[in-house]
Structure formats: C-alpha cells, structure tokens
Specification:
heterodimer, A: about 400 residues, mainly alpha, D-Maltodextrin-Binding Protein, domain 2, 2 domains, 4-stranded mixed sheet, 17 helices, 4 strands, B: about 300 residues, alpha/beta, globular
C-alpha cells in the first residue's frame, strides 16, 4: 500500500503539472465559457432589436409584396409577419424580388393556392409554411361564415385545440439521448486518450531505462495500479473541470438559454444516472488502462506503441459503434446491446446506455457491474504480470505467444 | 553479513541462462562479478534483487533466506536512465520513497548525497539538461540514498571522467568501510583488481571461477619471474628459450622448477643491473581471458 500511494502521488503530480494537460483543460473551459456566455453577450448587443425578423434593420423593414389578395389578407399576413412591411401590389411581383426592392412576394391564386417568391431561398426560410397557415385559416373562416356560422363562433372553433401532456412511464429517450450521447462520447474520448497516455508513460519509462531502477524498487502490481489509478483520477479531474465549469456557466446564463431545450435537457440529468456514470467510467477506464499499460510495457520504443495498441483501440471503437448505432435507432435493448452490456470491454458504454435510455432490471445492472469489476481485478493482475515480464524485454516487440510463455514462466 | 547465492538455476523458456550459479559476498568487502556480455551477470543480479524468481536455488543472507522487506538493496544498473523530463530532486525523492524512506528522511539523504557528489547546483534542474557523466552521478544517488545494506554497481565507472571516477572510488571505499556488501560488475579489470577482495567469473551461466582474488592468484603455479631491468636483452640471451615480453614491458622468465627461484634471483642480481624482480602473478585480465574467453 505504501508503494502504491507513493507511485500514485508521483504519477498524479506528473499529470497535473503537465503543461499540455493543464493547457488543454483550460482551453476547453474557455471554449465552453465562450459558448455558454454567447447568448448573454449577443443579447446585450441586440437588446433593442424587434423580435422576430432576423434580417430587418431597425426602421427599415423588409418588404413583402402580396398580389391577388385584398386588405384582409394583407392585414392577416402583416400580423403573422411583424418583421416585414407587407404591401399590396397589383402588378408583377417577381421583378421587385429579383432586383432587391422586396425581400419576398406572395402571388395568390385564391386562398388555397399561392406562389412564394424569394431571391435566394434560405435553409431556415419557413415563410411559405406560415403563409400557408395564415391563408388556410382565412379560407376556413370564410367557408364557415359562408355556411352560416357567426364570425365569433368561427373564430372560436378555429382557435380550439386539444390540450395534451406526455407522461413517459419509462425513460424519455428523446431527452436522454443527448446527455447519454455526451456521456458515452466523454467516456470514449477519456478512455482512448488516457489509455494511450498510460501506454506511453510505461513505454517512456522503459525506453529511458528508468524502468531498470523502478522494477528493482517497486512491485509491478503497485506500479501498474498506481499508474492506472493516477491516470484515472487525472482524467476524472479533467472531466469534472470541464463538466463542472459547463454547469457553472450554464447556471450563470440559465435565463438566456431558456428557449434552448437541448442544452437544458443536458443539465437536467438525474443524479442516479451520474452515479452510474461514475461507476462505469471508473471501471471501464481501469479495464482499458490496464490493457494499455500492459501493452506499453511490451514496446521497447515509443514508435511501437501506436501499432501495439491497435487491437485494443479497435475493440473499443467497435463497442462504441455498436452502442451509438443502437442509440440512434432507438432500440437500445436489442440482443447485441444486451450481450455487449455483459461483456466487460463493452459493458461500460452498453450498460450505461441501457440504463439511461431504457430500464434494465436491477439484477441485470448488478450482474453487469459485478462482471466488470471482477474482470477489472483479473485484467489488472494479468496486466501487472505482463508488465513485470514486458518491461525487461528489449529489442523487437515480442509476439503475443512469447509474452504468454514468459508470463507463465515468471 | 554474508550474502550467498546458492545453486541458482534459471531458464527463460527453452533457453538456460544460469546453471547452478553460487557465490558468496561478505560485508565490508567488495565482490566482483565478472563475465562476458550475455554470460548471465544481469540475470544473476536480477534474481538476487527479486525482480524475478529463480527456477531453483536460494538467495541467503547470513544463512537465512533473504527478507527483501528488511534488507535494503541499492542498484546502479548498467543501462542508465531516469525520468529525463522531471526535476532531479523530485525523482530522487520518489526513488528513495519507493525504497521505503519517509519523505523528510528522503529529502535529507538526497540532499546529503547531492552535496557529496558536488551536484547540489543541479538540484532543481531537469535531468535531461545534465551531461551524461552528471546524469550517472544522479543515478548513483538512487542507489545509495536509502542507505542500503547491499550495494550493486553495474559498470559504475563507464562514462565517468578521471575526476569523477576518483570521486566514485572514494564513495565506494567509504561504503565498503561502512560495512556494506558491495557487488561490482565490470569489464574494467583494473577497477575490480583495485577494489575487490573476492570475485566470481560467470561464463555461459556457469560460475567458472570464484573465491578470494589473492588466493586465486596464489594458486597459479609460481614458476615465472617478472623482471624489470635495463639489460633485458642480455638476460634473455642468458636464458635462451625461457623468456617472453609482457604487455607492460616486463621480461617474463620461466623457471624450470619453482624451487629454482632463489638461485635464479641471486644469479640475476649478481650478473645484471636489476631494477625489480618478483614472482610473476597473473593479472585479473589474464585470469578473466583464461576462464571467460576460451571456453567457447
């Protein structure tokens, strides 16, 4: 335990005083601050601008020409488009649009048929839909009035709508999708990045020959666990910094984000899910970090690392894709996902996703966590053995067969 | 204290690396572990340090199986290197802590050693800013700072300039005088001869020769005289077919019988101008070549 804590402290200090590590974390926090303060800063500049129209400059509104309609159509459209100066036009409406005199034009062929002219159609231009809605409403009102319904009654009928409320008895996949995705992606990034860091760390010690002294000073299990736990905590610290500052910035700007459901959804994560996240993060991190550490110990040169870790990285990426595909198809409980949620190398992502977006039975979750935890210990011990043998093997990267043989002999 | 390796066997897979290696090292004396490259020196050292276990055989301290939790071992590996990018003081304290020292003791001891080796000014520098020789002195601190009972130095003098070599010699002599078991491994025979009372020569995983260096030398037949004289040519002419030149310029005269020594010495001093005449003892180099070199 004594050696473990010393190795742990030394390694953790190594991470936390690493300029790149600190720099990257600070940069991400700054980017988050910029993003999350953006609406507030924009609001500050735009505060006196009239609401709906994005293209209109104050005092000089865009012109919308209407041909083939009467004053009632014009006023209805003017009410629906407060950002536009809606004018009636009897002649050609295409020319003013092309030469820029009007932003857009509506050519009516009766209340149920119209052409919407605009110069360049923006992706976000929903004017035609709005016009259609306004005209449909006018048409229905007119039709009802014609059929003898009083205008007031007609208005009432038109404005009636069924009131409804959605109550999800399981989990709301739509809402959970976003933060599950972010969490899975964070897990993915952290494991890949820190796994590589552990592998590089071990290989650096080996190639700088610091290993010669280390291996005679500390037990390999203490070395392995010290390194992995330290990198896990470093990764976790980084995540807490990033998500913590994001939450803080969001809370500071909550009112400015009021209209943006997506962001709100993310910060609405239930606490129980955070706890599961933590459990799967730690265990998933460990199991991969052990593997990366073991592989790092078998490489004699830093250049060998990238090719050596490839199989593990591929395994992990494959797991990630299974999970992401299941998430986007909505069937997170498909047989593949169920299988993956018990396999220790994929369960951190697969089981977490199932918990977040479905409702697996408690025993399923417990079994998954138990398998994962037991595998962690097992992989840790095997990794320490590989490490003990691997760090003293120099020269060409040994084959898997040789490593297994050497571990058996050691 | 007496450190003993008894009948150590070790193989890696099919490859037999050590076959029945045994030797003894005493405290207060230096022990030289010799052998050609790949003979099994490093494997012996690693088994001695419990980096990996032997297939069979024992490592004993005063006749008991060694308890690694109690006995401190300091090691200067042949392949040198620490953390190049880290501050020297940080890593030295870390290594001392790994060897079981408490932080304040570690700081004190590391500072003492840095001063002893004249490295205090580099205390807060990064290791890779130092020259190779100075890095080696830093590495020596990792072997000595925790005041180990057993000190293992693998090629300690390689890469050191004469001044630093002298400094290291003094340090090693101090450690021996303090009753440490000092184990040397080197190819530089002159240093081994200077320090070591006992040696073991390992050849292809077998101890080819071990024992007290003086005894080993005395066991050689004392049938040659080493002569330094201004009249070496005349002496050679007076003893036809019995003389040869040694590398150091001495004339070697083979006696027909060791009992002939006195009469030949008297004759030499009577008939020639003799600077020095003594019984020829083989150098460690000669012994090494004989035991480690020829048994291919």
């Amino acid at each position: 335990m004594g050696q473990f804590s010393k190795i742990f402290k030394f390694e953790l200090k190594g991470y936390l005083t690493n300029k790149v590590f600190v720099g990257v974390t600070a940069l991400i926090v700054v980017v988050l601050a910029v993003v999350l303060f953006f609406p507030r800063v924009m609001g500050f500049f735009d505060s006196d601008e009239p609401g709906d129209s994005d293209a209109a400059e104050p005092g000089e509104r865009d012109v919308m020409l209407v041909s083939g309609g009467d004053e009632s159509v014009r006023s209805a459209l003017a009410a629906a488009f407060p950002g536009y100066d809606v004018r009636l036009e009897n002649g050609d409406v295409k020319a003013p649009v092309t030469n820029g005199q009007a932003a857009c034009a509506v050519e009516l062929h009766g209340l149920t048929d119209f052409v919407y002219y605009v110069d360049n159609l923006s992706m976000y231009d929903t004017n035609a839909d709005t016009i259609s809605r306004v005209l449909t409403e006018l048409y229905r009102l007119a039709a009802m009035t014609e059929a003898g319904v009083s205008p007031e009654k007609a208005q009432e009928i038109m404005s009636a709508a069924a009131v409804y409320e959605v109550r999800s008895l399981g989990v709301d996949q739509g809402q959970n999708f976003f933060y599950t995705y972010i969490m899975i992606f964070a897990l993915y990034m952290v494991i890949l990045l820190y796994g590589q860091m552990v592998a590089t760390n071990v290989a650096t010690e080996k190639s700088s020959r610091a290993m010669e002294v280390l291996v005679t000073s500390a037990r390999p299990t203490a070395m392995m666990f010290g390194k992995v736990v330290a990198s896990c905590l470093a990764g976790f610290t980084q995540l807490v910094c990033i998500f913590g500052s994001a939450l803080l910035f969001y809370k500071l700007n909550e009112s400015y984000w009021a209209g943006t459901e997506l962001i709100g959804m993310f910060f609405d994560m239930p606490v129980s899910l955070l706890v599961y996240m933590l459990v799967f993060f730690v265990l998933g991190f460990f199991i991969y970090a052990f593997l990366y550490g073991a592989i790092g110990s078998t490489a004699s040169k830093l250049e060998d690392i990238n090719t050596s870790v490839m199989p593990i990285t591929m395994l992990f990426i494959a797991g990630f894709f299974v999970v992401v595909t299941a998430m986007s198809s909505g069937s997170v409980d498909n047989p593949l996902m169920v299988a993956c949620s018990y396999i220790p190398f994929t369960s951190p992502m697969a089981m977490f996703t199932r918990i977040a977006m479905s409702h697996p039975a408690f025993y399923e979750v417990a079994i998954s966590i138990a398998i994962l935890a037991a595998s962690c210990v097992g992989v840790g011990i095997v990794a320490a053995k590989i490490y003990r043998v691997g760090v003293l093997l120099y020269g060409a990267s040994p084959k898997l067969k040789d490593i297994i043989k050497a571990v058996k002999n050691a | 204290m007496q450190l003993e390796l008894r009948d150590i066997h070790k193989s890696f897979g099919e490859k037999k690396v050590l076959t029945g290696v045994s030797f003894k090292a005493e405290s207060g004396k230096a022990f030289g572990l010799l052998g050609r490259n790949g003979a099994g020196k490093t494997t012996s050292i690693r088994i001695l340090m419990d980096v990996f276990p032997a297939n069979s055989g024992e490592v004993l301290l005063d006749g008991e199986p060694i308890d690694y939790k109690r006995v401190g071992i300091g090691y200067l590996p042949e392949e040198r290197g620490l953390y190049p990018k880290k501050k020297i003081i940080d890593q030295l304290i870390y290594f001392a802590q790994l060897k079981g020292m408490r932080t304040p003791d570690a700081v004190r001891s590391v500072d003492k050693w840095l001063e002893r080796l004249g490295m205090t000014e580099y205390r807060n520098k990064r290791l890779d800013t130092l020259s190779k020789g100075n890095q080696q002195k830093i590495q020596l601190v990792t072997a000595l700072a925790h005041d180990p009972e057993i000190v293992i130095l693998d090629e300690p003098f390689s890469g050191l300039d004469p001044v630093n070599a002298m400094l290291l010699k003094d340090v090693v002599k101090e450690e021996i005088a303090r009753g440490k078991i000092v184990l040397f491994s080197s190819h530089q025979m002159s240093y081994i001869e200077e320090f070591c009372d006992s040696i073991a020569i390992i050849n292809k995983g077998v101890v080819a020769l071990t024992g007290d260096l003086h005894d080993i030398k005395r066991e050689y037949p004392r049938d040659k005289l080493a002569i330094r004289s201004t009249q070496q040519e005349q002496i050679a002419a007076a003893f036809p077919g019995r003389t040869s030149m040694a590398e150091n310029g001495e004339l070697i005269l083979r006696l027909s019988d060791p009992g002939e020594k006195m009469t030949v010495m008297q004759r030499l001093s009577r008939e020639f101008d003799i600077d020095e005449v003594r019984v020829f003892e083989p150098s460690l180099n000669d012994i090494f070549v004989e035991y480690a070199g020829e048994q291919e």
